[in-house]
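[09:14] KT: can someone run the structure on this one? pasting the chain below
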Amino acid sequence: MTTHRAQEYLRTKVMTASPAELRLLLLDGAIRFAEQAREGLEQKNPEQAYDGSRQCRAILTELTSGLRSELAPELCERLSSLYLFLYKSLVEAMSERDAEGVRKVVEILAFERETWRLAMEKLVEENAASSTTGDPSGPRTGETGTPDKGDGDSIGGRVHLAG
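[09:31] RB: done, structure tokens below
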């Protein structure tokens, strides 16, 4: 696949994704860039390490700023603390040129990604169950099967991608 086609595909994927799916894409990106930073450290390639670290830190910042504390204050506080911990751990590992420290960041990000994926699956199942029982009190879903509150509010609903 050419670079241009890959960029078109990613752009389409981002533009059509729900807020929950966007959060998953951001976590995928954070993992990919943290891995790039780790590999750069291991291969003694400072440019690769810096670029991966910079992109991962930008995504962690975006994940933090996209939290909607008015919807779930306790959850958002915990996620904010997690993302801050990961950011600080990444900065520390990079300043010490510690590939193992970056690997630990990747490990936690992968766990967070899997947790988010499972939460999305559970919401889809619950939405399907409430729609088959005709329960009007259940959450409404959009085309993607993710919760739709009607007003666009959701945890991680504000996602901004900078080039």
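[09:33] KT: thanks! Residues 19-148 form a domain with the Four Helix Bundle (Hemerythrin (Met), subunit A) fold (CATH 1.20.120.340).
[09:34] RB: yep, looked fine to me
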